[in-house]
Specification:
- With 461 residues, this protein is mainly alpha-helical.
- It is 75% helix and 0% strand.
- The longest helix has 53 residues.
Length: 461
């Protein structure tokens, strides 16, 4: 049986380095987004702001992510992965440090939006590059490292920010926000020698360059035949191609499943103390820390389990558990605190584990010519969901109460479950080119016997 130098490569030190350097961007992303949580209340003490400005600053990075992923996904498909892979980290460093000089709310808002744009760019660049180098047997696991590192960065920012808030005085918010430059600078240094994607080079008429990289870093015996699928693909890489008939259903699925996942996620975890207090449960350190701990555990669970079963059952099981846990909280109005905390912990674990699909599915559903562009659109759509969850939850609690809001999040997760029943494809075990093709094609079986090697591809009607 024929093998493919990229898709059937043995896992090597190069793959692990590329995974670390690529997914390290997610850690920086999570840190940047999480730092505002402890910093904003301190900023508001010395810079009185209304609820509207507070909400805008809190959601500013999400607004930036929407713009950055939409724009730079397309740019990445046009000019290549590696160049943007370095530029966006440089922006992380400069913009993070610039927050030290903030003088008013508008300046902070602008800088946070710009940081969000850089974060949005990294979502599309790093995920795409990791996917295009990963062997199919390990692709899901390597991509799942990204969401797990995002969670680490998010929780780390809150821990560091909370500690600095206690000792930093009136201007502690400046240093909390500026600390995101530290992981970004370290990652910038590590990323500088990452090679360009051979798949992208072949797609853009530079197969010989791609082959040289492939031989140097992956397989010394690789030939041009290993890049033939990319060379043969006919696509201009324009946004029109992203919305072509053969990609529309997949694009709709990837956008909607991610949307239905993040609305409950951001609604619950941005305002967890508020929700607990509304349910008459003391929002103490241990209550919120225990739930956040399950976020970290869930990230590890995602890495370990995503390659064990197919993408489709993973999606369905995750949405079913998210729906059940939130409805169980919302329907029992006088539930004891232990019951509610346990269900929130389950919700945290499943949400974090399911986030593995946020990098896996968009990377696998679209061809190289539009992979970053399509991923960028999916990220942008998901940020609409994140913004809705963040901005509307306080209003929802005032109008419907915490139980009502929890029921609404359960309904949103239920919609995601129904969408996945109808449209979720199976891409495990396929080469990246096969996974991106809208056809039913049986994957190649490898020695591992894992679903990544022997699951069938099901393109749902």
């Amino acid at each position: 049986m024929a093998t493919h130098a990229l898709d059937d490569a043995k896992l090597s030190r190069f793959h692990l380095k590329t995974t670390l350097y690529g997914n390290g961007g997610h850690l920086c992303d999570g840190y940047i987004l999480g730092a505002i949580v402890p910093a904003l209340p301190l900023f508001a003490q010395s810079h009185p702001i209304g609820s509207l400005m507070s909400g805008l600053i809190g959601a500013s990075a999400l607004i930036g992510v929407f713009l950055g992923s939409l724009l730079f996904g397309w740019v990445t498909d046009k000019i290549g992965r590696r160049r943007m892979f370095v530029i966006d980290l440089a922006l992380f460093v400069v913009l993070s440090l610039a927050q030290i000089a903030v003088t008013d709310a508008v300046m902070l808002l602008v800088l946070r939006v710009l940081l969000g744009i850089a974060v949005g760019a990294d979502y599309t660049i790093a995920t795409t590059l990791v996917a295009e180098f990963s062997p199919r047997k390990h692709r899901a696991t390597l991509l799942a490292v990204g969401p797990a590192m995002w969670t680490v960065g998010y929780v780390l920012a809150i821990v560091v920010g909370t500690a600095l808030a206690e000792v930093g005085g009136a201007d502690a918010w400046r240093w909390i926000l500026a600390t995101s430059a530290v992981p970004a600078l370290i990652l910038l240094i590590l990323r500088r020698n990452t090679p360009e994607s051979p798949r992208w080079l072949a797609q853009n008429g530079r197969a010989e360059e791609g082959l040289a990289i492939l031989r140097k870093h992956v397989s010394p015996t690789a030939t041009l035949a290993d890049l033939a699928e990319e060379e043969a693909a006919e696509s201009s890489g324009s946004l029109r191609d992203v919305f072509a008939a053969q990609h529309r259903k997949r694009l709709a699925f990837a956008c909607l499943f991610w949307f239905c996942q993040v609305v409950p996620y951001f609604a619950v975890f941005t305002f967890l103390p508020t929700i607990l207090e509304s349910l008459d449960i003391e929002s103490g350190f241990w209550q919120t820390t225990s739930v956040n701990l399950f976020l970290l555990i869930g990230g590890v669970v995602g890495i370990v389990t995503i390659g064990k079963i197919g993408r489709r059952p993973y999606t369905l099981i995750s949405f079913a558990l998210l729906t059940a846990s939130t409805l169980a909280i919302g329907l029992w109005q006088s539930a004891p605190a232990g019951y509610v905390i346990a269900l929130f912990a389950l919700f945290a674990l499943i949400s974090s584990a399911m986030a593995a699909l946020d990098t896996v599915y968009p990377s696998e559903l679209f061809p190289t010519s539009i992979r970053a562009s399509a991923t960028g659109i999916c990220v942008s759509f998901s940020r609409i969901g994140a913004a809705i969850g963040t901005l509307l939850l306080p209003v929802g609690i005032d109008k419907f109460g915490a139980h009502g809001v929890t029921l609404i999040t359960g309904v949103v997760a239920g919609v995601g479950f129904l969408i996945s029943i109808a449209w979720a494809p199976e891409t495990a075990g396929l080469t990246l080119a096969q996974a991106a093709a809208d056809t039913e094609e049986a994957p190649q079986k490898s020695d591992s016997g894992s679903p990544d090697s022997n699951s069938s591809f099901v393109s749902q009607a």
